[in-house]
Amino acid sequence: MNTSHSRLVKRHSGVRALIVFILAVCCSGFSALAQEVTATITGIVTDPTGRIVANADIKAQDLDRGTIWPTRTNGSGFYTITRLPVGRYEVRVISPGFRTAMESPIELQLNQVASGNIKLVLGAANETVQVTSEAPLLQTDTTDVGTVIDARTNVSLPLASRNYLQLTLLTPGAVTVQPTGFQSGQNAGQVARPEINGNRFDANSYLLDGMDNNDAGSNYVAYSPQPDAIQEFRVLTQNAPADFGNYMGGVISASIKEGTNSFHGSAFEFFRNDVLNANQWMNKLIPGSIIPRQKLRWNEFGGTIGGPILKDKLFFFADYQGERFDFPRTTSTITVFTAKERTGDVSELVAAGKTIVDPQTGLPFADNVIPQPRLSQTALAIVNSQYYPTPINGLLQANAHNTTAVKTDSDQGDGRIDYAASVKDHFMGRFSYSDLTNPTVNSFALDYNPYNLVSTWNFVTGYTRTISPNLLNDARLGVNYVRVGQNQTTSNFSGDATSLFKIPGLTTSFLPAMSFSGGYVSNFGTKESVTDNYDTSVQYSDVVNWVRGKHSMRFGFQGWRIRTNGLFNGSNGQAGSFGFNTTYSGSPETDFLLGLPTNVGVGNLGAEWGQRNNVFAGFVQDDWKVTDRLTFNLGFRYETHTPFVEANDKEVNWDPQTGTFELPGQNGNSRALYNSYNGYGNYQPRVGVAYQLMPKTTVRASYGLSSFMEGTGLGLRLPGNPPQPIAASANYSALGYPTTTLDQGFTPIAVPAGCTIAGLESAAPNCYKGAIIYSWDKHVQPAHSNQWSLFVQHELSPSAIVQVGYVGQSTTHLTNAELLTQLVWDSPGVVSPSPFFAQNRPVINQLAYIFGTFAAAHQNYNALQTQMQGRLNHGLSYLLSYTWSRCMTNSQGFWGEGGQSQAPSAWWQNTYNPSGENGACYYNVKGVFTGYVIYDLPFGRGRQFGTNMNRAADAVVGGWKVNVIPTFRGGFPLTLSSNSDHSGTNSFQNRPDCIASPHVLHKQTIGNGFYGYRWFDPASYQEPKDGYFGNCSVSSVYGPGEQNIDASIAKTFSITDHQNIEFRTEFINAFNHVILDAPNNGGIDIANPDGGTIGQIKTSEGARNIQFALKYNF
């Protein structure tokens, strides 16, 4: 991988503006994305008559570490103690003429601003008035919106793979289209992520101990600590203060535990086995052919330890977790060619309702049998080879099995040191690592065996200096490294595809991917789409906290240096692909047997490249406590992103309007080849007001602007352009007959080697023939998200609150992909050339596709969000949330519909009519109810019933705990697709015609020898007429919802007062609800009266899993 140093990025007006801003604000560099991983206590000290008490000494002592944090009330009687590590505190107030006031214990949560108003009592200072209290749940001083998950909740709730990010779904406004993605066992890289408040899953920012925890190339989560290592984490979903930036969705901030003055820790083992689990619905679809439940061997083990090195001074914490996740045998149904079809007899397809014709005559084949001379020799060699499965029954669908073995091995750990050098000086340092491998082996040899790996390390160090009682500085430095390698394919048979199947021109030894759209046969082969990217982020931040009068102010600066090194083979992978649908004969199976592909993609071995960019930000935040009941949160942030620059200038851009190519740093071009952005989106106000309407009721309103630069993965980056190795493609959907057959392989469209800059200038075929070109608009920029909220919060009791609120977002300049080679639809049957590349027709006429990247999409979100929270009281704690929302957009994003369905929806149906793409976001859910309940049953020693019972009885009836996570939600919207380009414009996203209101059948049995559910009626849809686009809108039908309850029962056996053993049984999908996957939403088949496979559901999410756990705590 190339790691050459990049040249210095040319300074621009945005950087100069930033420098002027910082100097004007604080004459020094201070933190920015600030990364609050601590808490704050703030309040006013008064005498018995209510008058303020100035210059009172205040000390907050950490009860677990002995650390003291001093301050003093100012002339307004106001005090603020910031940067307090989360935990339990004792607050003492000393002032001449008054008794010492002591408030303890106060439990502080992550990012919490706790109100600590104290009224003194007349008397001597050596007399103490003690008040036992907790930090109030009522949010009286801040207006951001979010949820805190503390350590007790994090380690108690049932999590299938101990992925703490699954608990982000407990937050109002958070959903996921991949619920089982959180159960994969992956702790880094392409793990499941929530969609928050109407934003794409890659629009979140992940922080660990206040520093960056993101994979900048693809917006993955860089590292997920194990639950036992997390002190707590917070999900900020709306209107974060000016400390935070580079986000549109949520800011998920976690902190690793610290050591204390006593040794504490745990050792644990979590265990799952298939003998404990229920079988999935989809394995029992076919009567008499039940597939056994998938084999499972799951072990997660590890431990934590923390304690003092020097009492009250130096502390350590360390943890390790190993994961051995093995599906040694998972059998699933696939569909293969029948015995008759392997000879060219397609009569079974005709009998099932398909109309099949000879592409040369337009008439049916005699006796529905393809003449032998017309059959593709390559197709026959594939389906009759020993590597292609034979049918196990007489069905057209689900007539074969594939047995898959998947193994995930992971090791991870954290180490942290905290040092209180003095009352004024505190240091910390942490190092985290993880290493994961994930190989897959298929019994269906032609499916090949993908292999994934993820390696991560994350480092942060910080220094907090108390300069004076009202002035504090916090500086941090962090480094984050992520390597994600995907789809590194291996074969489980000898020989290569060229000799075995007689396909000329292959670039690897693998059989290229064979895909079938609109038919029954399962795909096979491999593109071998290897991606290997190495991301490194270096981040520095410094923040000053200053209390003056009734103002608690923060000033900061932050900078990132981001290095992304990648290897990408293009959209066709290394091995390439052949696609078949209903274009020629009416059946993709028949087209394959004839060797007539609709599209062909030639693979390449790819090239290594490295891109660099910087992010700079500065902010000021003033939390102004106007009165005891009224607080203003006033913030302003400046944030700028420099464009991506290739380290060795190995990239080329094409101006999308003129079609002329541009080289880095030449002819007036910048090295990035697109413009720096410096506009209103860089200047981000954050304003909020909190008013305590009544002693137990607050009203909070806020507005904020944030920006976010979305990564496009590796698939649209400019280093993929010639003269680097390029991919080539050919699409024949607009032709009556393809010009390349399967038997000819890639030879007719293969791109000759040797492209040079001179070749680009002369439009040489070895640079452009059949190539895919990537073009970035000069005005690509970060998205701008306007966010606003209004909440009413009421305290039901000292331990319970309820809140109801409205949140809204409006986002512009979202990154979107556009197909620039699409023809312009003028009228039915009349098209004209693309207006893009208008001055370079010799080039565009040779190209296969031009993929453009723009910042022209938009979305909006409106929601009613309610939440009831109960802090631990009599053994019970809970959080219950309901969200009703509506999210609309004209782009589903670079990643399409997030893997929940089969339709590619990153592209517009008509590039020249973006308003026609308006529809519900693919993750839009009209209603979601979720939450958790944790209940320590009131029986046993120290509890409500049997508090003095003996140890023997307590071992039986005491120490029981029940934990529940309920989830009930509606379905996600789906965009339907058709098989053919009826408009004649070479569109990538063809939709059908809606000829009736969508008729949702829900769980209607398919019948006619097919098994599963038909979710919606295909009679409501049809293929468009030739010369027309489909009139179905985006997101025109909704899929199935989810009803699920995860639960656990735990029993604690006390050994001593400070040691215990916990045995836990967890039930994932406890009541074994069938959670259906999305229906097939692609391939309207007008030749089949039954509609083909569209609307069918044949797969489901996981059935009930039971997990045992044993933990030793000390």
Automatic annotation (TrEMBL):
Database matches in Pfam families: CarboxypepD_reg (PF13620), OMP_b-brl_4 (PF25183)
Listed GO CC annotations: cell outer membrane
Keywords: Cell outer membrane, Membrane, Receptor, Signal, Transmembrane, Transmembrane beta strand, Transport
Signal peptide: 1-34
Localization per Swiss-Prot or TrEMBL: Cell outer membrane
GO molecular function: siderophore uptake transmembrane transporter activity
Principal localisation: membrane
SUPFAM superfamilies listed in its UniProt record: Carboxypeptidase regulatory domain-like, Porins
Transmembrane segments annotated in the record for this chain: none
GO BP terms, alphabetized: siderophore transmembrane transport
Membrane topology: Multi-pass membrane protein
Domain annotation TonB-dependent transporter Oar-like beta-barrel: ranges: 256-1107
UniProt superkingdom: Bacteria
The protein, known as: TonB-dependent receptor
Species for this entry: Tunturiibacter empetritectus
